[in-house]
Amino acid sequence: MAITKLSNIGTPQGGGAAHLKNCISYILNSDKTEGLVGGNAGTTPQEVYQVMMDTKQEWEKENGRQGYHFVISFPPGEATKEEAYAVINDFCEEYLGENFDYVFSIHTDQKHMHGHIVFNSVNRMDGYKYRYEKGDWEKYIQPITDRVCEKYGLPPLVYDPHNKIGKSYAAHYAEKEGRPSSEKIIKADIDFAIATSEDWNDFVKQMESLGYKIRQGKYVTYIPPGFERGRRDSRLGTGYRKEEIQERIQNKGKEKGAESILSSKLSKKYEREIFQYTETLTIFQIKKIKIFYQAGHYLEGKNPYAVNQKDVRKNAIRINELYEECKYILKNNIKTEDDLLEKQNALLAKEKQLMNRRSSLRSVEDKEMLRQYRALKKRLSDTPDWDDRFEIYQEELNMFLKQIPEGMLKAGEERQQINAILREIRHEKRIVNRIVEEERSLNKEQKISKTERTEIRHRR
User: Fold this and answer.
1) Which of 226, 300, 321, 381 has the smallest set of CB atoms within 10 Å of its CB?
2) Where is the MobA/VirD2-like nuclease domain (predicted)?
3) What pTM, to 2 d.p., does this model score?
């Protein structure tokens, strides 16, 4: 029986992220791990810590809770270190995905095999902080560990089976925002297929026409096009088991119709922001907007079977990124791929220039003195002027200011300004780099497709 525990990593007295740094160092202690380390933020304590701090700085979320620490333990003899690694790797991929920086390790220095996961408190995709609410444990976390344990032949936790339909934090978060999740996409596709089917066999054919792989046994598993993993019907909720679908097909006249994969509120927000720039568009811009629009409305087109089934669903999952990319190229008047590459180079040059300037300012800084100054300044700002301590704190700050070398405060302020600008530049870089990679991938696919068509013509 695997046992999972969750604790938050707070801010130490006086501020900073020392607790996060210490926790990362602890779980990556090479004396305990035998090299069994994984994740998406690096493999060394310094690298992982820096990646997490960069994300916090980029979104200006350096205060408050710094991260979270999961422990997944197995009784002695229940799991090998390889099985424990596989369980925790799969858990992280399903629950955290690419939304949060994370690192995990397996500790082999005790009789019972156990793994540690540390992940950032800030979502690296949109800057929102991870929120753990009452009930999330039973509803989202524990069911995932159970399913993963079951996959590797390990005993899952035993509790009320009605709560075993667990969702990843990414899916849970997407639903809260009104964005598509893999579950929502599968359910919408099933609803669409039901409306055009005469019986179960016809339904299966309709789903296969949409690019799905269907596995039938005790459960029906739906694997969407472009996805490695499928979803069992038992995890889709009421109305999606085989017998329920058969009943819905027989009574489809009573069906309300498929629910849109994109909430009406979010769809209106996207359209309001995007279409304010769409008076005159280039082919490059139209292509990006078409991909974005299709991702949220592919079932509403004249022929849902005609779209690229694999890409459109992958794009639906990352529709927030596509929205960000479309808005960026329109707002920055990027009309061609050459404009995009020019922007990429300009951002790199600006980043390098600012980093050089920041390095030159370090020579006039005394980090400890600046830390004390900021602590005194914060203490004063947190104290109301009617408080008896206000004048005392003000006098202490004034006395301390006299000790600071001339120019050091200005250098510190300039460095803070540079850091703020660098955060904006790095955020822009992420967007631009994504678009560049997408264009390269698309061009490569088109080139392959053209070559294949040429070969077919020659054979004829």
Assistant:
1) 381
2) 26-154
3) 0.57
